[in-house]
Amino acid sequence: MLDGLQFSSPTELSVGSVLLNLACAGLLSFILAWHFQTFGSSFSNRRKFANVLPFICLTTVLVISVVKASLALSLGLVGALSIVRFRTPVKEPEELAYLFLSIAIGLGFGAEQRLVSFAAVGAILLILTVRSMISRKGWRPNLYLNVDIPEHTSSVQLNDVLGVLQEHTSRVNLQRYDIQGQTFSGTFYVDCSSAKELNDVQTAVMNSYPSASVTFVDQATIPGV
């Protein structure tokens, strides 16, 4: 099928141009990573995911810079990528959006569309920032909620605790669930839109389980998160 194609030798790349593209893409990718950590609402470990974005972006720049110089290399890339399989699923749509934006930055600078890439990414991040500030209104919703209920009995069920939390929060995600002797311990991510909602959660848990201990921790203040 490829007998009729004439493959020319790869065009010699300019090292200076590639390094400039890598530097520009690196700058934007680090801004993108900072933006995800600061304005993202994902329940995952945002810092760990953000650290991957520059690596993906710079790798994309290198790949596009190499394959654009030769049709043969482009066809070879198709075959090479056919063996790649992603084993870790992207759990949140927001993570996928930032991942695509990181790849888009790499594509733009790999194709040497520097001005367009800077303008487009700047506009996108500005729109996302405004949207995030309007929706949050100064409130940081990502919180760890630790619920400890001593003297655990069979009447204390995980579904019941989740039901109480779901009643008074925008979103709940179970992170850890332990039964140690007679003590029930649960760790959750909760999304509270206001301080009043946070207080309602505490009141509801204490009303349902008077002996419970309730602790809220902002995940952004935890080292390594």
Structure description:
The protein has 225 residues and is α+β, with helices and mostly antiparallel strands. It has two domains: 15-136, no CATH class; 142-221, ACT domain (Alpha-Beta Plaits). Helix content is 55%, strand content 15%. It contains seven helices and four strands; from the N terminus they run αααααβαββαβ. Strands 2-3-1-4 form a four-stranded antiparallel beta sheet, covered by helices on one side. α1 (15-39) runs parallel beside α5 and α4 (93-110) packs antiparallel against α5 (114-136). The radius of gyration is 24 Å and the shape is elongated.
Note the total helix count. Answer: 7
Q: How many independent structural domains?
A: 2
Q: What is the H-and-E element order?
A: HHHHHEHEEHE
> What is the tally of beta strands?
4
**How would you sum up the global shape?**
elongated
Structural class: alpha+beta
Mean pLDDT: 77
State the low-pLDDT regions, or none: 221-225
Give the helix level as a range of percent: 55-70%
Report, as a whole number of angstroms, the end-to-end distance.
52 Å
What is the beta-strand fraction?
5-15%
Over all CA atoms, what is the radius of gyration?
A: 24 Å
Q: Reading side by side through the largest sheet, how are the strands ordered?
A: 2-3-1-4
The largest pleated sheet is described as:
4 strands, antiparallel
